[in-house]
Amino acid sequence: QVQLVESGGGLVQPGGSLRLTCTASGGIFSFYFMGWYRQSPGKQRKLVATWRTGGRIEYDDSVKGRFTISRGSDGNTLFLQMDKLEPEDTAVYFCTTTTASGKSDWGRGTQVTVSS
Predict the structure, then answer these.
(1) Which residue among 11, 32, 65, 91 is least packed, with the fewest CB closer than 10 Å?
(2) How far apart are CA 2 and CA 98, in angstroms?
(3) Do residues 110 and 103 lie in contact, with contact meaning Cβ atoms separated by under 8 Å?
(4) Whole-angstrom Cα Rg for the chain
C-alpha cells in the first residue's frame, strides 16, 4: 500500500518561491508515473507537472518556465520547485503516483497560498 505525504506548502508573497515534497512510503515501489496536480476552490483538479519513466516531463502551460518537477534519487520522492509564484497558483497541491502494476494513489494535499 503506497502512502503519499505532501509537505512544503504555505503562505508566500507574489514573486516568491516554495518547494513541495512528496514522500512515498509503505514498501519498495517501481513508479512509472509521478505527478503534481492542484485544485482551487470550486474548480476541478488540474495537472501541474508530471514525470514518466525514461525521464519524460510535462508541464501545464500556466507553469512552464516557473515550476520544476524532479524526482529524488531514491525513486520514492518527488519535488516541485515553484518560483515566481502568482496569486493564480493558490490551490491545494496533490501528489499522485502510478506503479508499474498500474495501481494509482493520491496524497491528501498541501495548501499553497500566494497573497500579499
Answers:
(1) 65
(2) 10
(3) no
(4) 14
